[in-house]
Structure formats: structure tokens, C-alpha cells
Amino acid sequence: MRALTLAVLCAVSLMVVLDGSIVAVALPAIQKDLGFTPSTLAWVVNAYLIAFAGLLLLSGRLGDLIGRKRVFLAGLGLFTLASLLCGIAQDQAQLIGFRFLQGAGGALASAVVLGMITTLYPEPRARAKAIGVYSFTQAAGSSIGLIAGGTLTQLLDWHWTFFVNLPIGAIALALAVRLLADDRGPGLRGGTDVTGAGLVTGGLMLLVYTIVKAEEYTWADARTLGLLAVSLLLLAGFVLRQAKARQPLLPLRIFRLRAVSGANAVMVLMVAGLFGFQFITALYLQRVLELDALSTGFAFLPAPLSIAVMSLVFAERLNHRFGARAVLVTGLSLVTLALGFLATVEADGSYTTDVLPALVLMGIGFGAAMPALMGQAMSGVAPADTGVASGLINTTQQIGAAIGTAVLATAAASRTGSLLAEGTAVPEALSSGYRTAYALSAGLLALAVFSATVFLRTRKVQEAIVA
């Protein structure tokens, strides 16, 4: 039964991760059907991202207080219902609003999954294997989403990128009600930190909004700087509130765990480089190599296959043999090399020689790194704090995704625009912009390698501390 429970939790996690990318390939069809402008079309993605990132931390803490099963079921139900509403949306406002609801449901469901897996598998080696399966859903989900989005959009229509969630959500909901153990936290009667909840949710939502709008306004614009200042003030107020609250939303004691603090820092840098990489690579394949949506989706297939082999077959053994930090640093180093290789792509390049080797190398590195990183993020966390620790690592993952997409897209567009103004041919200008973005991605991953080396302890040190 434990294996089936893990399968349900990971299936829901995969469905939520897929939804962040499955819609990306369908955006041109959505734009044509509902009449979006290029600027308003971005909100089909941004509405989901803002709600998802903003509510993860609150959702994780709610799981600790009122029960992770309750929060998971509520989130899964809301996500499935919102998917139906998105699929039948008739205008722009409806689709954007329902995407926000979908993001909220995704946050509630996914924020508590890692904490539930940690509780479900208390034995260290069994837990490592389970986290490897979960990490696969996180690591490969976006690439699988591109494949699924291209297939559904080209063979059916964009509505099915949302309808595909309905049978999965309904089956998972029925199984989860039966399989998940009832857990009851201390409840809300002890005093919920409403002020802290408002500060962190508002601060995170505004921060993600500022990041995604920076591509339009530019980072030096007064509006961007003003919004960024307000979001940081809200988050600073949240930290001060947590230090004084009787029942804090985010107990600051978990940051005393070096593994937790270090893992979250590494997650931001890693995801910033890799989420932007997917966006840039999809553009390179379609706009330079001229692949259609379906071909673009399948072009990413080597990455999730490599991730699956590494995370599901070898990751647990490698972590047991060499320690999480060594595996994490090695995996991130391989990803950095892959991004450096992509930073040499040309306008007359080919998928087989210029993209495929990097995807395979990146899948191997990421498949090794992600389970090690997730294990570090939950290392030493008390049972009462597993929900908030799970929500925290998912929050930093989403912030990294927002930063990476905004920064890399802006850098690529700026470089391409300057070359076009100088009279450079479109394919060469686009390729140069993408090379710039890949180089920045490699830089972010190099910083992640440095952070993992400096902030995460070796296995021998961790064992000495435990002893």
C-alpha cells in the first residue's frame, strides 16, 4: 500500500509540474482563438505562477496545523475543478482567472507532498528511494509537459492541455481519500499567524509579479524598482513577524539547519538556470531550427529519459555510497558543462550535434542532483515542521523559475534586438541572443555548484553531528 500511496502523491505532483509547461506550447493556439495580444498572453502563464509561488509557504504550514491530508485533498479538488473551468473558458478574463485558481490548487496540493513522503518512509534508504521517485516528477515534469503540450495541441486542440488533468485528478482524488493516513496537527485554535500569512503571501506574489513584469518594464524602470522595494519590505516584515509570533507561519528555527538553508539557496540558483534553459531551447528549436510544436516537444524527450534512469535507478545508490553533497556537486557540474556546450549554438546548427548531446548530459546531471538536493532540504527537519519545509523548498523552486525566465528572456531579447538594429540577419541575431542566455544559465549553475560546496556539509561531518 505504501508504494501505491507514493505513486498517487507523485502522480499529482507530476500533474501540477506538467501544468506549468504543458500550456506553453499551446500559447499560440490560445492567442489565436481568444484574441490575446502578445503582452496579455503572458498572463496565461503568469497568473498560474503568481498564485502557485505565493501560496506554497502558507499551504505547507496549513498542512502542519490542520493536517496534510486535508490540505492535499482540498488542493487536488480545486486544481481539478479549475482545469475543467480553464478548458471551457470563453474569453481572456475567464482563462486568466481560472489559471489563478489552478495555481492556488496546485500550491495546496504540492506544498505538502514532500513532507508526506518523508513521514511515509521513515527509514533512511527507503526514504532516499522514495525521494528519488518524487524528484523525477520535479526534474522531468517540465520536459514531459512540453512533449504532452505539443502532442495535444497538434492532434486535438489547446483545450485538451487542461482537460487531460480531469481523469488523472479524479482517479487520484478517489485513491487519496482511501490511501492517505489521517493526520491532525495542533489545529488553528492555538492562534494562527494571520499577519504573517498576509505579509508572506502578499510579498511573494508581488515579488513574482515584479519579476515577470520586469521583462516588459526593464529592471532599471522606476516601476520595477518600486514594486521590488515594496515586495522586499513585505518579506522583511514577515521575517520580523516570525521572530515574535507565538505560533509563527515559518518557524525560523528550521534555518538553523545548515542543510535546509543551503539546499534552498542552491535550489533558487539551479532552477533559475534550468527553467530559463527550457524556455530558450524551445525558442531556438522553433525559431532557428524551424521545428513545429510536436517536433519541439519530442526533441526534449532525451532529457526526461536520462533523468528517469539516473533518479530512479542510480541516485539512491550514489547518495548512499558517496554522500548527498558529493552527488549534488557532481550532478550540477555536469549540468554546467551541458549549458556551456549550448552556449556555442549557431544559426546553421543541427539538433543532433548541437542540442541532443547537451540534453542527455543535462538529464544525467540533473537526475543525480535533484534527489540529493531534495533529501538535503528535508534533512533533520522535525516532524512538526515537515509541511513548512516542503512548502519552503517548493517556494524557492518557483521563485528561481520566475527569476530565470525573466532574466534569461530579457538578456536574449536585448542581445537579439541590438544585433537586428545593426542589420544582422534574423537567424544569426536570434542565435546570438540564445547563446547569451545559455552563458548566463551556465553562470547560475556555477554559482549553485559553489554554494553547494560551501554551505552543505560532507557526509562525515553530518554523521559526526548526528553522533
Write up what this structure looks like:
With 467 residues, the chain is an all-alpha fold. It has 2 domains: 411 residues, Growth Hormone, Chain: A; 54 residues. The chain contains 19 helices and no strands. Helix 15 packs antiparallel against helix 16. The C terminus is likely disordered.
- Low-confidence runs: 460-467
Write down how many β-strands occur, each being a DSSP E stretch of 2 or more residues: 0
CATH architecture type of the largest domain: Up-down Bundle
Domain count: 2
InterPro entries: EmrB-like, MFS, MFS_dom, MFS_trans_sf
Subcellular location: Cell membrane
Pfam family, one: MFS_1
Protein name: DSBA oxidoreductase
Structure characteristics:
single chain, 467 residues, mainly alpha, Growth Hormone, Chain: A, 2 domains, 19 helices, 0% strand, disordered C terminus
Outline the fold blueprint.
Layout: H1 2-22, H2 27-34, H3 38-66, H4 68-87, H5 92-111, H6 113-120, H7 124-155, H8 160-163, H9 165-179, H10 194-217, H11 222-244, H12 258-288, H13 293-299, H14 302-322, H15 324-342, H16 351-377, H17 386-421, H18 426-455, H19 459-466
Helix pairs in contact: 1-6, 1-7, 1-9, 3-4, 3-5, 3-10, 3-17, 4-5, 4-9, 6-7, 6-17, 7-13, 7-14, 7-16, 10-11, 10-17, 12-16, 12-17, 12-18, 14-15, 14-16, 15-16, 15-18, 17-18
